[in-house]
Design goal:
- The chain is built from seven helices and 16 strands.
- It is α/β, with parallel strands linked by helices.
- It has two domains: about 120 residues, Translation factors (Elongation Factor Tu (Ef-tu), domain 3, Beta Barrel); about 110 residues, Rossmann fold, CATH 3.40.50.80.
- Strand 14 and strand 15 form a beta hairpin.
């Protein structure tokens, strides 16, 4: 008995003519247009520093990559920043989806060897991406006003859901938490979707007690049909508590170390509480977006 091993070349943006109906990364039996991911080589359009710690990366994306939904991520093959090898890809959530231009954007923090290597890519280089991966955010048609609350790199993850809300004529209030004004990133992008409230460590406005007052005010004004958050366990716990008290549905994008990003390795398992019982879920394929009331935190 013999079997052909699965192997294929990546989709090269601007060169490959492979039809999108051809299976690329094998999965369960699904219609070809619903296959979850592919490997693609994407030209770097621009790659600039936003501040001392964060970079903004724009790539030309494949048709399959452009099917990414808010909250999903790509597993990026980062160049090594030194003489050592990088054995694993790095998961990065999408910051902006520009289907008209055929581009995907990432906003990320240079914090380890992987992202420091990623930071070395220049315009014209190719980025090897696998995706789109995971379960993203969803918008209920009944919601007319949502609140997104992000801190640090979590702000980037909330960009696409704010973008989708704007396109669906849903009001957005974005609360962006940061150490100081230099790290209030993408506020212009969020202003395109709705109202922006910046809260900072330097003036004390990022304190949980103050953020709670802001959220309570939005609830009273009926501007909070749903909560979305990423980037801070303290702020997640606050939103979870207020959501439960006021019966406001919520979703949280979990940040977690991953290896394969496809499910088999079980590196990204976290504990959740569902109907009073604890259960383990993989952040990469069961998430990274979860029901706020089921997530325990990190």
């Amino acid at each position: 008995m013999s079997a052909e091993p699965f192997a294929s070349a990546p989709y090269v943006v601007g060169e490959s003519a492979r039809p999108v109906t051809v299976p690329h990364i094998p999965a369960q039996e699904l219609p070809a247009q619903e296959l979850p991911a592919e490997e693609s080589l994407c030209p770097v359009v621009s790659h600039d520093w936003v501040n001392d710690e964060y970079k903004h990366l724009v790539v030309e994306a494949s048709p399959k990559a452009l099917t990414v939904t808010p909250g999903q991520f790509f597993n990026l093959l980062c160049p090594s920043p030194d003489v050592g090898e990088l054995f694993f890809r790095r998961p990065q959530s999408v910051y902006r989806i520009d289907r008209e231009r055929g581009q995907i954007e990432f906003l990320y923090k240079c914090v380890g060897r992987g992202t420091r290597g990623l930071a070395t890519l220049e315009k014209g280089d190719e980025l090897n991406m696998v995706g789109p991966l995971g379960v993203g955010f969803r918008l209920d048609p009944a919601w007319r006003q949502i609140v997104v609350l992000g801190r640090g790199v979590g702000i980037a993850t909330l960009g696409p859901i704010s973008q989708a809300a704007r396109e669906g004529h849903v009001g957005v209030t974005a609360i962006l938490s940061a150490r100081n004004p230099d790290f209030v990133m993408a506020d212009g992008f969020f202003r395109e979707a709705g109202d922006v409230v910046s809260v900072l460590d330097t003036d004390g406005t990022s304190a949980v007690e103050n953020v709670e007052r802001i959220l309570q005010s939005l609830i009273v004004q009926r501007l909070a049909d749903a909560f979305f958050t990423c980037g801070s366990n303290r702020l997640f716990q606050l939103m979870k508590r207020l959501g439960k008290a006021h019966n406001i549905p919520g979703q949280v994008a979990m940040e977690q170390v991953m290896a394969c990003g496809l499910g088999p390795c079980y590196v990204c398992v976290r504990t959740f509480e569902v109907d009073g019982k604890k259960e383990l879920r993989r952040v990469c394929i069961d998430g990274p977006v979860f029901d706020m009331q089921e997530a325990v935190g990190w």
